[in-house]
Amino acid sequence: MSKIKILLVEDDSNLGQILNEYLQLKGYETVLCQDGEAGFKSYQNGSFDFCILDVMMPKKDGFSLARDIRAIDKKIPIIFLTAKSMKEDTIEGLKLGADDYLTKPFSMEELLLRIQVILKRTNGGSSKSTVTSYQLGSLLFRYDKSVLERPSGEVKLTSRENELLKLFCDHLNETLDRSVALMSIWKDDSYFNARSMDVYIAKLRKYLKEEESVHILTVHGQGFKLVKMD
User: 227 and 135 in contact (C-beta within 8 Å)?
Assistant: First the structure.
């Protein structure tokens, strides 16, 4: 399956390079531009599946660039990046048909997961992984069947348990932001849903306890990490 191709337009050279390398590391094909005019030329000369646009840029700002892109393709997903948190900017972005909006600073993991959620929703691509089974030491997690197979017997997972465990597996040995997990599965990061997620994580820990090399760790102030030790 061909890679998802992303147009990344960011005038901060350091941030742009970091984002570019991170997305490539995660399996995406990217083209990085540092101003809106260069971004539009790249868009016209290439075939893209997704756009990530900084709002405040020289020569052509992100909103103007989005208007030009939308005149050609009304459906291509767009995420805006901005250092501002002004309500007016958010409204303007939504009027232009933005799929999402991230205020700097943000975590790379949050951007990645938002890309995955949008691609899945728009059928423009797959989420991070199309893998349906994961080997965790002596445990076999079969996402397609909502089952965790263990030496002592299989565990039938609920829908939320199944989705949460897959999210952890797709981010194996990476810190998964609490808010990102909540928005991905619960679609809301309210206090009530956060407490609900804690209950599900406690259940998953119990299911995984049989395999000593696998643990769900709490990363204080950030989120959780599914760790598999060799």
Answer: no
Mean pLDDT score, 199-212: 94
**132 by DSSP, 3-state: which?**
coil
CA proximity to 151, closest of 136, 162, 166: 136
Question: E-assigned strands of the chain?
Answer: 5-9, 29-33, 50-54, 78-82, 100-103, 133-136, 139-142, 147-149, 155-156, 175-177, 214-219, 223-228
With 80 as the cut, is the pLDDT of residue 128 above it?
no
Over residues 105-112, mean pLDDT: 88
Q: From residue 27, how far is each of 21, 23, 68, 132, 165 by CA, in Å?
A: 10, 7, 27, 18, 21
In a 10 Å sphere around its CB, with 0-12 CB exposed, 13-18 middle and 19+ buried, how is residue 132 labelled?
exposed
Q: What is the pTM of this model?
A: 0.55
**CA neighbor of 178 nearest in space, from 115, 101, 81, 109:** 109
DSSP labels for 85-119? --HHHHHHHHHTT-SEEEESS--HHHHHHHHHHHH
What tokens were used for 59? 């020569």
Amino acid at 204: L
Tokens encoding 37:
């005019």
Contact between residue 54 and residue 81 where contact means Cβ atoms under 8 Å apart: yes
Tokens of 31: 């083209």
* Residue type for position 54: D
Buried b (16+ CB within 10 A) or exposed e, 192-207: ebeeebeebbebbeeb
